[in-house]
Specification:
206 residues; alpha/beta; five-stranded mixed beta sheet; two-stranded antiparallel ribbon; 50% helix
Length: 206
């Protein structure tokens, strides 16, 4: 009988964790769509987005911007000095890697995370905003070399160069969501972030 080694056991655990994340997130998105979902005119846009959620509130994010944001957050987390790394950081970064590569999973910031880990995520996103403001753009040829998860990188949906301004706005909105300061969208709409031209609204199903 072939026994699974440590690496294989770790990969099985990652697959199971990703499956649980997928199930939880898709259930939430279906609930959004069923109870307060988007109108039919927004269907095409939503197919290119993931849901970001925390504390019972959330918004939609363009999947390319969400992937870029999470990759940069992963890098910031990996660069933390040992004395600032909470015990749960590896698990948080694993989740970010999965969502970065498959952004339509959405990014549910787990309410089970200890406050220290939520505060750390907030700090990482603030740091990410500064980094991206300095960089300005990202090119497809560079992204093609990234190893985000098991040798896989993220999709830019055919873009050769991506302006990072919408990603910075998405980072700020996520920080506001965690802090509880995100303004509520106009009645009958959802906020959508990460798009060229800035924040937009998407009509809920009437």
């Amino acid at each position: 009988m072939c026994h699974a080694g440590p690496w294989h056991t770790h990969r099985i655990a990652e697959v199971h964790r990703a499956a649980r994340l997928w199930t939880r997130t898709r259930t939430r998105i279906v609930a959004w769509d069923r109870n307060r979902g988007v109108g039919p005119e927004a269907g095409r846009i939503v197919s290119r987005m993931g849901a970001v959620e925390f504390g019972g509130r959330g918004f939609w994010a363009y999947d390319v911007s969400l992937s870029l944001l999470l990759v940069e957050a992963i890098r910031a987390g990996e660069e933390l000095p040992a004395d600032r790394r909470p015990a749960g950081l590896p698990g948080v970064l694993d989740q970010l890697r999965v969502v970065a590569v498959v952004p339509d999973l959405g990014f549910p910031i787990e309410e089970s995370w200890p406050p220290r880990e939520v505060d750390l995520l907030r700090s990482l996103l603030i740091d990410v905003s500064r980094r991206l403001a300095v960089r300005g753009t990202v090119a497809a040829d560079g992204v093609a070399t990234w190893d985000v998860l098991d040798g896989g990188t993220i999709s830019l949906r055919g873009a050769e160069v991506v302006d990072l301004t919408p990603v910075i706005e998405l980072a700020g909105a996520t920080v506001q969501l965690v802090e509880g300061t995100l303004p509520r969208a106009p009645a009958g709409t959802w906020w959508a972030y990460g798009f060229e031209g800035g924040r937009r609204t998407i009509a809920m199903r009437s």
